[in-house]
């Protein structure tokens, strides 16, 4: 799965109506609500949107006929295999009725064009874990963890016998990280994963 690297906008005129799409990366439902509150235009006729974050999604037609705005925007998100993103398509009515099919094409097309214009990044599922290590193992363990691709040392807490490291790493590298910790410390330390 992919997400947008940064916010992106796209605007087009369809039969005198102005459509402005804004795609924004999000991390949660709260981010989606904040984005909607921040970027909805009060002077517009409609602020339709869709967002997806994992298995959770929402969409709204905001007064347009049912199924003509929010759902096509969500289909644009899903059609480009995007996640953790909200797309808000704002419409200023230009005086010409578009009909059901025209609205679906206008909202879905504007959202899709907006998302195509954005730069994407791959979403890598990560895990967090803790490692308790003796002072004698700490330096070499930290060096090997830092050199391991995708591992980030988030926190280091010292205690009487050594330290506790909190790390983040790609989910699919769990077995490799566990093996690295065990091999580096000759089995004296293990990785405890936070679920």
TrEMBL record:
Naturally occurring in which organism (per UniProt): Rhizobium grahamii CCGE 502
GO biological process: regulation of translational initiation
Name used for this protein in its record: Impact N-terminal domain-containing protein
Pfam families on file: Impact_N
Family recorded in the similarity comment: Belongs to the IMPACT family.
KW Transferase (keyword) present: no
Keywords, sorted A to Z: Plasmid
Domain (Impact N-terminal) ranges: 15-115
GO cellular-component term (any): cytoplasm
Keyword Transferase: no
Entries under InterPro entries matching the protein: Impact, Impact_N, Impact_N_sf, Ribosomal_Su5_D2-typ_SF, UPF0029_Impact_CS
Domain of life: Bacteria
